[in-house]
Amino acid sequence: MISSFNSNHINSKALNCIPWNTPNISSPPPNLFSSTKRRRLQQIRKKKARDQATGGDMVSTLISSTAVDQTVQLTALVSVRKSLKLSIQDMMLHWFGNHDHFTHHKEKEKSLVLQLVSTETEAESMKPKLSNEAILDWSKDLNLNLINLINLILGAEKSSYEVKFEVDPKFGMPGAITVSNKYEKELYLDSINIEGVVHIACNSWIQPDKDSSEKRIFFSTKAYLPDETPAGLKELREMELRQLRGDGTGLRLPSDRIYDYDTYNDIGNPDEGIEYVRSTLGGNYTHPHPRRCRTGRPPTSTDDNMESPENEYKRIYVPRDEEFEEAKQGALDVGNLKGILRHIIPTLRTIASRDSNVFKGYADINCLYGTDKSLPKILNKVQEFLKFDPPKLIAGLTSCCLPDEEFGRQAIAGINPMSIQRLTVFPPVSKLDPSTYGPQESALKEEHIIGHLNGMSIQQALEENKLFILDCHDIFLPYLDQINALDDRRAYGTRTIFLPPTNSDSPSKQKQVLTPPVDATTNWLWQIGKAHVSSNDACAHQLIHHWLRTHACMEPFIIAAHRQLSVMHPIYKLLKPHMRYTLKINALARQFLINAGGIIESNFTAGKYCMEMSCAAYRDWWRFDLEGLPADLLRRGMAVPDSTQVHGIRLVIEDYPYATDGLHIWSAIETLVRTYVNYYYPDATAVNFDTELQTWYNESINLGHADLRHASWWPKLSTPDDLTSILATIIWLTSAQHAALNNGQYPYGGYVPTRSPHMRRLLPEEHDPEYTTFMQDPQKYFLSSFPSLLEATKYMAVIDIISAHSPDEEYIGDRKDLSTWSADTVIIEAFYRFSMEMKEDRKRD
Q1: Has domain 53-221+229-237 been given CATH number 3.40.47.10?
Q2: Quick check: helix, strand or coil at residue 635?
Q3: What's the pLDDT score for residue 398?
Q4: Omega into 753 within 30° of 0, i.e. cis?
Q5: Which of 3, 18, 133, 530 sees the fewest Cβ atoms within 10 Å?
Q6: Which ranges of the sequence are coiled-coil (predicted)?
Q7: Residue 220 near residue 198 (C-beta atoms within 8 A)
């Protein structure tokens, strides 16, 4: 189609949200570098350490000024957060006389046991210097517990307790703390502050000793590269990483915190029947895929190579600290409840009337939405739970058909602005094997579009960057026979041609072409054609741009970061907020979304072939080196190199809000990351000498992306610039890119006729038996091509939930806790500038 581009800007706030048989990975040997380079590197780091000296030295001074034969007492404030429900229950049990719930005749048996670890070692044993073991038993302080209970009821998140440690005068500076939980239940350790100077950000669930006998280790917020680690902390640094890696065996328990890799061998369930058999994703050429977090569940009864899926009522394993916090889980529970309630009325209608599961008219669609705001308050509340909120798009529509201008606008400013490309060759040419899929040339001919080019020739339009394309042909064509054999699924391999303002529209199916309508009949054919294009684009958006690029392909980098980068590592600190919840969301996706018969298969065009299409895109199209925004725009022809421009590229469409806003954010991310990287890595030697960093990146590729590990396009990691590019790309994908793809799903896709996830009917042709039905009532035929009423409401409920903002969400440019950078003023200042840039971007919206 040739459609008009007249777009508004994407909401900037949405952009700002935010197995195996693989080779061993080796790290660069220390003797790779000359002694001169090593000395230079050490001198730079010593100077930086002096520059970073903070109030922590005050603690050392306090200790060292004490007489040699005396011990020094250090006071720490411990902040703890437990589940609100459990906290109130436990405290009430204690006050009403159930003392055994907390206390015991042995002091340590029901308490937290904490021990400080010095940055220094004992001269003789070379073991870290330790404080005494301090006992935290809040059950004994009834007054403090009363205050904390009141705070919990009033909504306070944390409870704080004072603990005193005794240390030797030569103890040095505290650098870490070990913690043992002697209580019966897990608790959340928020932070520990020593003398108001040394801060330890814990942010972790501590399991009872009965479930995990290993002491937990927490380090101060000061960042250390591996070879800068103080002597007293080296062993603990390595020990913690070993704990997180595990040994690759056994069933993972909900209380575990082990990160490991596995293939996607758990999305099928052959024990339920042949219709639930699905191929393993990853570990083979046919269905290559990034790896997931290993759970260790037993195999299915009928296929030893398939892992048994988790019961839908049981929590699928992710490391304990990857679970949703209570605020987010609560919001999801409310969303699920609304989804169930909003499904009740359509279900009752379907039961009452056999024909009521099909949309009969515009009114049938509109009644799903709570558009009447004049109702009394109590009825508005009822309406909120029984009806859907009107999507953003619905306000401007006067019918169930999407106007051509809006259809074109959404290609560059809707929920999927990442599929459109500049057309460089006409007719479009397929890259598929012609011996299997037929001629590579498109059925589109010059006569189909020449009348819509405003006097230009085809060649002139191409040279002036006036033609653009949504090309789903090669994605869908290999699967069309299988898709069209499914019940209630009909699809084409579509190509859609767009022309910027003042002109009309035209898509094509192989061997069939639609051009702008000339009468009522061709108008309805035109609307059905546009609906098929939107449906294909919805499928490509969800399976490739959303799931594959921002979820599945990021999981290996996150797993490797936890396995190979210490929490003390500056790169871990930079990446941490951008890794939040991804593993949990991906695990839930395997359990409910991409599994056999799950939400994706049930709703989208490709049905049970959805994940096979995603694998094909991963094999044939995905490249990490082209995932950064400028590279992606150049790849799609939406920009051309231009050294005179701020970003080094020039957009071929000025009114392309995703790219315009996105380049501002990309540039700000890149600037922040470059400042951060250059602060810790002054030259290539520093990058190559960082064994944790090199192992993280190598493992991400060789284990996490094992099926593509031999690809020549993987970026090298040898210089600060290399590292800046890699990190900026990861941060971009997990924040701004994901927000652009996710948060608009319901506002732009919650009105099914304008963006149907699948189609049930093909275009009627004159020789088809259905053509008579179409001619008798074109609108009825058009509406019957969409998902059923029940399918539509299920789909709407899901995208409403997954695209909603979470109450505990952090927007890019915001940090709830800057304490992790407390010693680095250069980094704090860089982040402040970045934060201001993000706020300015939101103001421009």
Answers
A1: no
A2: helix
A3: 61
A4: no
A5: 133
A6: none
A7: yes
Residue among 321, 808, 810 nearest 583 (CA): 321
| Mutual angle of helices 555-564 and 691-699, in 10-degree steps | 150
Summarize the chain as % helix, strand, coil (round to 5): 50, 10, 40
**Is-contact 552 610, C-beta < 8 A?**
no
Helix (H, G, I), strand (E, B) or coil at 490: coil
Q: Using one digit for the tens of pLDDT, what is the confidence trace for 251-266?
A: 999 999 999 999 999 9
Tokens of 482: 């299988």
Find the DSSP H helices in 96-216: 142-153
Residue partners of 161: CB distance under 8 A and separation at least 6: 77, 78, 80, 136, 138, 141, 144
Residue with tokens 């359509």: 346
User: How far apart are the C-alpha atoms of 730 and 714, rounded to whole Å?
Assistant: 14
pTM (two decimals): 0.86
CB 162 within 8 A of CB 152: no
Residues 6+ apart with CB under 8 A from 546: 738, 741, 742
Cβ atoms < 10 Å from Cβ of 105:
6
For the four alpha carbons of 100, 101, 102 and 106, in that order, the dihedral sign comes to positive
Per the document, the length of the chain is 845
In this predicted structure, the answer to whether residue 92 has a pLDDT above a threshold of 60 is: no
∠ CA 596-600-606, nearest 5°, is 90
| Cβ neighbours around 8 below 10 Å, total | 9
Contact 264, 316 (CB under 8 A): no
State the residue for tokens 């989208």: 604
Cα(210)–Cα(212) distance, rounded to whole angstroms?
6
CA 819 to CA 184: how far, in whole Å?
A: 31
HSE at residue 748, side-chain half, CA atoms within 13 A, is 26
The model's pLDDT over 794-807, given as tens digits with 9 standing for 90+, comes to 888 888 888 888 77
Classify residue 25 by its DSSP letter. Answer: P
- pLDDT recorded at residue 503: 39
Distance CA 552, CA 557 (A): 10
Q: How high is the pLDDT of residue 148? A: 58
- DSSP secondary structure string for all residues of 334-355: HHHHHHHHHTHHHHHHHHH-GG
CB-based contact 753:796 (threshold 8 Å): no
Which residue reads 């009821």 in tokens? Answer: 153
- CA gap 745, 735 in Å, rounded: 16
Residues 567, 573: Cα–Cα separation, whole Å: 7
- DSSP category for residue 593: I
pLDDT at site 357: 60
Tokens (6 digits) for 704:
């996490």
The DSSP symbol for 11 reads: P
Instruction: Report how far apart, in Å, the C-alpha atoms of 246 and of each of 171, 233, 355, 378 are.
Output: 32, 20, 56, 54
Opening angle at CA 546, ends 731 and 485, nearest 5:
160
Determine the distance from the C-alpha atom of residue 732 to the mean position of all C-alpha atoms in its chain, rounded to a whole number: 11
The domain ranges of the chain are 53-221+229-237
Query: Three-state SS for 118?
Result: strand
Count other C-beta atoms under 10 Å from residue 258's C-beta: 21
DSSP 184-203: SS-EEEEEEEETTTEEEEEE
Q: Which amino acid is at 413?
A: A
The H or E element that residue 469 is part of is strand 468-471
In whole angstroms, what separates CA 26 from the centre of its chain?
29
DSSP structure string for 240-278: HHHHHH--S-SPPPTT-----EE-B--S--GGG-GGG--
For the record, the structure tokens of 640 come out as: 């051309």
d(CA 700, CA 715): 12
Q: What is the pLDDT of residue 197?
A: 86
Q: Which residues contact 539 (CB under 8 A, 6 or more apart)?
A: 472, 476, 604, 605, 606, 610, 613, 757, 758
465 phi and psi angles, rounded to 5 deg: 55, 45
User: Which has the closest alpha carbon to 414: 16, 809, 746?
Assistant: 746
